[in-house]
Predict the structure.
Amino acid sequence: MPTELVAALDIGGTKIAGALVDRRGGILVRARRPTPAREDGETVMRAVEEVLAELAAAPRWASVRAVGIGSAGPVDAARGVVSPVNIPGWRDYPLVERVRRASGGRPVTLVGDGVAMTAAEHWRGAARGHDNALCLVVSTGVGGGLVLDGKLHTGPTGNAGHIGHVSVDLDGDPCACGSRGCVERIAGGPHIARRALDNGWRPGPDGDVSAAAVAAAAHAGDPVALAAFERAARALAAGIAATAALVELDIAVVGGGVAGAGGVLFAPLRRSLREYATLSFVRDLTVVPALAGTDAGLLGAAAAAGGPDREPAAPAA
């Protein structure tokens, strides 16, 4: 009998990616479309349907038993709807029902993109073999997800572990979510860049004012760029330590574009974590870079839908 597969969708503001994924995390077929994020909701859905149709044209489609979706959020898994901040045409959009119809009535599981990344890291990445983990996506925003007692903990709506909107500065700047001093408002890529610019950092001749450009300047020793990453790292450390104090964690895994800064983020992050995570039951918490890479969204969507082998995962070497 052919191996059962899961169809995975990774939906963001830039791209809609799809894949057929086997039980060991092998990606057998891929499809991709740009997200028409500024168009109406039905136009966006047509792009999703095109991705599914391309997957359905593959000979292995008959072996697909379920569909997993990792979507930019907010999502509401209990209702099967999504309202991604970066896709204005989708507000309380019934994505689960539409994908169920487009996939021939197969069961559909929806999670937020941070939860999907967490599922991928626990299945095939840096959190493999750990029973209690927090995984973070640090990019334009800051998302996350939790593994507790060896299982993905999605919460009722699929948003559990959203560390980006934990407040770590009671008198901090207003956040887009409506709160103040959130981790995302300090550690998100655009906010790192804005902090550096406000404190005197200037881009090179190419005019690049992204967080990646600030990271490059930090690697070159620019003190303002280093200070911007130091501040972001402290915010992340405070959020991680608070989460660990609540639920007890073995490991925190950090991925996303900002994590690509490497040592200029991870060195102050680990140093700050030692200052914040001081209780005996959180003191041994480690922080490591993510390993699942650009396929994390697809692998995580597949894992959330029940894709992994049920054999216990071995710790990563």
About this structure: Residues 115 and 145 are 4 Å apart (CA to CA). The longest strand covers residues 27-34. The domain at 129-290 is CATH 3.30.420.40 (Nucleotidyltransferase; domain 5). The mean pLDDT is 92.
